[in-house]
Amino acid sequence: MCGSVECSWGWGHCAPSPLLLWTLLLFAAPFGLLGEKTRQLLEFDSTNVSDTVAKPLGRPYPPYSLADFSWNNITDSLDPATLSATFQGHPMNDPTRTFANGSLAFRVQAFSRSSRPAQPPRLLHTADTCQLEVALVGASPRGNRSLFGLEVATLGQGPDCPSMQEQHSIDDEYAPAVFQLDQLLWGSLPSGFAQWRPVAYSQKPGGRESALPCQASPLHPALAYSLPQSPIVRAFFGSQNNFCAFNLTFGASTGPGYWDQHYLSWSMLLGVGFPPVDGLSPLVLGIMAVALGAPGLMLLGGGLVLLLHHKKYSEYQSIN
């Protein structure tokens, strides 16, 4: 795929084909997704929590380790036409039957061209990217107003963790009321990235009325021996690696939440090289053109009126 070019994390500047990315995702997710590991499903009790406190997540319940989940046969969900597949699982030991009617699903999809998904947050993707969608469906929460989250571990580049950046925009056409984009970058070039909108959804299909805030904690170094060992990660990146971890939490103690319909979904984009850059949408460009052009048209019209008015009086001939 890469010829004679030496490739580092994220294959450096060598972009693998969508089929290769898809194959890697099928073997790697959900425990070694291109160097990222989703370690645990977190749950917090936010019943008596105010949004004004410093840490509004609430009392944590014991987390669900994804290493203790039983996963479906991936061949049942393979779709070569859309280059997608879904990993669906539940805890192997579930004495309280929390997941009796529920599951945690990871849907992975590669892309063959630049476009946007039909569902929010509609991140712009290219042929060098893959999308990971996480959905918690039907599981019984352990509290009346439970908040959920994910603990994610990822490879660092050298001794440092990937850099986390926030980008802000005035454009929210593709994700209504969301003006921010979060991303992880590996290296200054960069050689790889992860990108997401800080929003999750408590209904399907997602919309503004079911949007939940998504918060990411700062990255911190993680001990390799405390992580589930992924043969995919070891095969691609070696056994001596520095890992970093961070938490993603979804929702707040007020407003919509998982408790509404026992549904939660969130998605991110993974890729090599530079991340896609969103331009302003046609709708926003049209609004800006009208907003900026209207005053100019008014000035132009006023100038023409004054010019014609002045010309009319200049043609008057004095009787003297």
Task: Outline the structure in words.
Mean pLDDT is 77; it is low at 1-16 and 24-35. Strands 1, 2, 3, 8, 12, 13, 14 and 15 form an 8-stranded antiparallel beta sheet that branches. An 8-stranded antiparallel beta sheet has the order 4-5-6-7-16-11-10-9. It is α+β, with helices and mostly antiparallel strands and 320 residues long. It has helices at 18-28, 231-237, 258-261, 282-314, and strands at 36-45, 59-60, 64-65, 69-71, 84-91, 103-110, 129-137, 146-155, 163-168, 180-186, 192-196, 199-201, 211-216, 220-222, 243-250, 263-272. The chain has 4 helices and 16 strands. Strand 10 and strand 11 form a beta hairpin. 33% of the residues are buried. The termini are far apart. It folds into 2 domains: 18-279; 281-310.
Short structural description:
Keywords: Glycoprotein, Lysosome, Membrane, Signal, Transmembrane, Transmembrane helix. With 320 residues, this protein is α+β, with helices and mostly antiparallel strands.
